[in-house]
Amino acid sequence: MLMSSGTLFIADASKRNESLPSGPLMPHKEQTPSASKRRKKIALPLVDGFVFEKLSHIVYLEADGNYAHIYLSDGRKMLLSRTLGDMSKILPEDAFVRIHRSFIVNLRHVARYIRNKYGSVVLSNGTVLNVSPHYRKAFVEAMSRYFCGFQP
User: What are the extents of the domains in the chain?
Assistant: First the structure.
């Protein structure tokens, strides 16, 4: 096969003047986002529209009936027009984990784990949250995947 200005020529005498477009013959997997090119921002639904924030800035979310409060690393707090359950379906599960029926935490912002009856987490903003017995197993598994050497 010979390459000439963007066209692939087949060097077989019987097919000498046939040409094929250059480039891949099979579609690339690059058409779908890979884990390394994951989205870094999220559209947070507010009562009057959306605000776009980096996922890394989210410290934790707290349930408030049919709404949820979101706490950001710069100290801001916003009221979302979605439930905590709705938000848990949107947030990436490898970084965000539910620790209580009222709380979802960003594992990136977990600064300390305290062993007590069920466990507590200290977040990067100083907030201390208890892990409920119902969510403890899933939380410990998520922490073990996220943090090297974590064995409660």
Answer: 40-146
Tens digit of each residue's pLDDT (9 = 90 or more) over 54-113:
999 999 999 999 999 999 999 999 999 999 999 999 999 999 999 999 999 999 999 999
Asked whether the beta carbons of 81 and 46 are under 8 A apart, the reply is yes
- Cα(92)–Cα(108) distance, integer angstroms: 12
If you ran DSSP here, which 8-state letter would residue 43 be given?
A: E
Please tell me whether residue 83 adopts helix, strand or coil conformation: coil
User: What local confidence, expressed as pLDDT, does residue 37 receive?
Assistant: 54
Q: Provide the token pair at 84.
A: 């905590």
Question: Residue ranges of the alpha helices (H) in the chain?
Answer: 84-90, 133-146
Q: Which residues contact 132 (CB under 8 A, 6 or more apart)?
A: 99, 100, 101, 118
Write phi, then psi, for 32 (nearest 5 degrees).
-105, 145
CATH code linked to domain 40-146 = 2.40.50.1020
